[in-house]
């Protein structure tokens, strides 16, 4: 059994379609990869093609077996690792909130916000088949109209069958505003070498109370969220063609090894591998 495990090769291939709203795609095969808790600016819409994945999302642990669909909302804190000895293989699309908002405006209705998907794992064979078709077309076809039409239809069906309107879950409005100010600060200045006391002073809160509120609202304490903000900034800089050594410094990582470690745990590939997919 040990020899069989050693022959499993991990791979992760990213692709980005600029003309389709910048949507990203991933075709991955993981065995030992353990994703740290992190979040994405976009949604994750993926299918488990082999094995099974276990992951945390929205306060609960989940298992996605072969053939199931994984749904992770934009900004949802999540992680991931294998739930079987063979690991897991999956394909994923990463639509942005703006794409769903545009669809909402075009199909009418009072709600033009991006949807919320309450279920982390769903079983929908019809949607899965449509996903595979769209994924194949996005890879193989150079017909822009065909790609746009099929992707649009897929996202509309996903919203209609499994999406809900975003609602206010009863978080204290004052506290929510205060921690949002801190979140915005970390998003706007990801490279800032800021202390917990300085963040607390920014919103006139006790430092330890701030940590508790922030984690309750966003799923991570401020220091961990800062790393995620830095990684988001890093992916943008990499796509723009910046040198990796410069990216690490601009994003506030004190050395390359620190940058590479956090990037690999969140993205499943190293910064160099990620850059290769987008700049080749």
Any descriptors?
single chain; 280 residues; alpha+beta; Jelly Rolls; Arc Repressor Mutant, subunit A; 2 domains; six-stranded antiparallel sheet; four-stranded antiparallel sheet; 47% helix; 20% strand; globular; disordered N terminus
Compose a concise summary of this entry.
The protein is 47% helix and 20% strand. It has 280 residues and is of the alpha+beta class. α5 (173-188) crosses α7 and α5 packs across α8 (222-239).
Describe this structure in words.
This protein has 280 residues and is an alpha+beta fold. The protein has helices at residues 2-6, 97-107, 125-140, 144-162, 173-188, 196-202, 207-218, 222-239, 244-250, 256-267, 271-279; strands at residues 11-17, 23-30, 35-38, 44-51, 53-57, 60-64, 69-72, 78-82, 88-94, 121-122. The protein has two domains: 2-162, Jelly Rolls; 173-279, Homeodomain-like (Arc Repressor Mutant, subunit A, Orthogonal Bundle). It contains eleven helices and ten strands. The chain has a six-stranded antiparallel β-sheet. A four-stranded antiparallel β-sheet has the order 3-8-5-6. β5 (53-57) and β6 form a beta hairpin.
